[in-house]
Structure formats: structure tokens, C-alpha cells
Amino acid sequence: MWEVGVRRSFKFLLRPTRRQAAALAQCLHDHRELYNAALEHRRTAYRRAGVRVRYGGQSGELKHIRADDPTGQGRWSFSSQQATLRRLDKAFVAFFARMRAGRTPGFPRFKGRGRFDTVEWPKDGDGCRWDSQPENPAATYVRLQGIGHVRVHQHRRVLGTVKTISVKREGARWFVVLSCDEVPAEPLPATGAVAGIDMGVASLATTSDGDHIENQRHLAASADRLAAAQRDLARKKRGSTRRRKAVARVAALHAKVRRQRLDGAHKAALTLVRGYDVIVHEDLRIANMTRSASGTIIQPGRNVAAKSGLNRSILDAGWGVFLRVLAHKAESAGRELIAVNPANTSRTCSRCGHCAKDNRLTQAEFACTACGHTEHADVNAARNILRAGLALRDAAEAA
């Protein structure tokens, strides 16, 4: 049975002509200039007059900006420029929220060429049009104001209703990202099975049934090529054509690692979703876990090299990507996903419940000092995670 109401994104490679690629680059450049100019406007108004400029005022000035620059800002979609101003406004909203929460605020920064890679059109049909040449059976096109009909490498069917269209630059490639509402979800048949999963570095994930999902270590596999490309980059003169090409080579290698990691996450998550009705995982704070141990000059950190290596291994495993993909697939398949506090799950015996630091002898070996139970440490932790998740579900149903 099909259910409706899920929001999904679809990402496709663009095949622009040389002229269209130049226009896409200019569109991105002009939107970045608009973002930076709007940020400078806010900074100057507050510094000189104590006035807070908001989105409404800046959006109202767009028509004058476009009229004064008809061959520049005036040729792009008005709604896409509004989306860029909303992006800046969201950055300020988040900044003030962090200040109120007592966290490190991080004032919105000006965007350099490498920090602004996306332009959004908020509504299909307003300055953009998906499948703009439906009469062409051999190819799919997206029409973008000021750029034209750009060919799309559509490798799968788009479901639901297209709401927003974004164009993103990744290295030398261009992609179109469609955000769709009312995407049909197809629940999978019930299996009657439940599982807890323990995230790790030796294995990406270990289930309570004892299955291990391999950690592919894509970054480590590309480390030699990346190191060579970065050494080559370090020797190039800033601003030169050769340096731009070296930067592109490094970016291409990182992009390949990112795509490999995402592909592995999709395959691993699909395996779990097909096999289990209920999946329990750790509620991990990955940003906290990978925080630097370097400390300060007054209070330097300890075991900095070891912590740096662990951080690199955690990020290479791609826990965050995997859990995000798992959440999307579980929602679409009608599976239940439960996140639990991971505290002491690796130190507690899954048989008798005894918790002690000495229970875990090594990274892979668990031996309870109370009852003598021995098991693979990750499997033991996954069973504790499953038990905690089922207890949370039972408590929620009883409430």
C-alpha cells in the first residue's frame, strides 16, 4: 500500500554547454556578491547607527538593485535572489539563537568563492522549470532564468511534486537538486525482527544479531593520492592557473571520497531497513566526539596525536551520513527508528547487567567480571542498545 506525505530530495548531474556553464558560474558569482553586499549592509547599519536591518527591508530594495544593474543582477530570477537574502537572514537568526543559549556565537561571515556553491529557486515555475521540454523523449531539461534549458542526466524517476529547485557546484561539476513534497512511501512487509546497532571504527556498525557492516575507510584508501595532490598544491603560486588546477584536483579527490561514503551508507542502511521492523541506534553527538584535543597554550591537551587519529577515523567512517540516510529510508519503508543514550552500553554485560570499566578488555573483547560472560564487545553493546530502545518504546506506549 502506498502512503503519501514524505518529503524527499532528488539530485541529478547537469550537462551544461560551455556557454551555459559560464552562465551558471556567473549566476553563482552574482548571488554571492548579493549575499556579501547584504551582509555588509547589515554590519554597517548596526555599527554606524545601531539599526538592525532585516530581510523585509533588504528584499524591498531588490527591485532598485536590479533596475540599476540590468545586465548583472537584473538578469537573474527575483525569487532566487530573495532566497539568497533569506539564507543570510537564517544565518543571523542562528547567530542570535546561539548567543541566547550561551554558546560560541560565530558571527555570519562573508562568503569566498569556495564557500558559496548553491543557488535556490523557491518555486518550480518561478524563474525555473523542471522538465521544461517534456516533448523531448530522449533527454530531460531544466530551464533556469538567464541560463536557458540545461540538459539533466536523470538516472531515476522523480516522485511527488517538485517544490524547490537548487543548482549546486561541486568542483567542476554542476548538479540540480529537487525538493519534492508528497513523495509516495512504500512500506516494506513486516519481518517481525528487531535489532540494535553499535557504531564503530573497526566495523561501521554491528547488529545485536552479530552481523558486522564493513567500514570501507574510503579516505584512508585515497590518502596517498590526496597527500600527493596536496603537496603539489602547496608548491603552486597563489593566483596562478596551475594552482587553480591543483585545487580542482584536490577537490575532485575529496568529492570522490564523499560519493563513495554516501553510496556505502545507502547500501548499508537499505540492508538494515529490509531486515528489521525496529532499529535502535546510539544517539551520538559526533561533533563533540571529534572535538580537537589540542587545548590551549596554557593548558595543552594530552594524547593529541592519538585523538587526532581517532577523530579522522570516526569522520572517515561517516557515522553522521549513515544515520541520516538510515532515518530517511526507515521513514519511507515504515520502519521504526529509536535513538538511545549510549552511556555505558559498551561497559555493561548484556546477560547480567553488571557495569564496570574492566568488563571491556580490548576494543573487540568483552568479558564480564561478575558472571564471566564473554562476547564480541560490539555485539554486547548492540544488545544493550536494543534493550534500552525497547524499554523506551514500551514506556512511551504505556504513557
TrEMBL record:
Keywords: DNA recombination, DNA-binding, Metal-binding, Transposition, Zinc. Transmembrane segments: none annotated. It comes from Microbispora siamensis. Residues 6-48 form the Transposase putative helix-turn-helix domain. Residues 319-385 form the Cas12f1-like TNB domain. This is Transposase. The keyword Hydrolase does not apply. In the N-terminal section; belongs to the transposase 2 family. In the C-terminal section; belongs to the transposase 35 family. PANTHER family: RNA-GUIDED DNA ENDONUCLEASE INSQ-RELATED, TRANSPOSASE. The lineage of its organism: Bacteria, Bacillati, Actinomycetota, Actinomycetes, Streptosporangiales. Residues 184-292 form the Probable transposase IS891/IS1136/IS1341 domain.
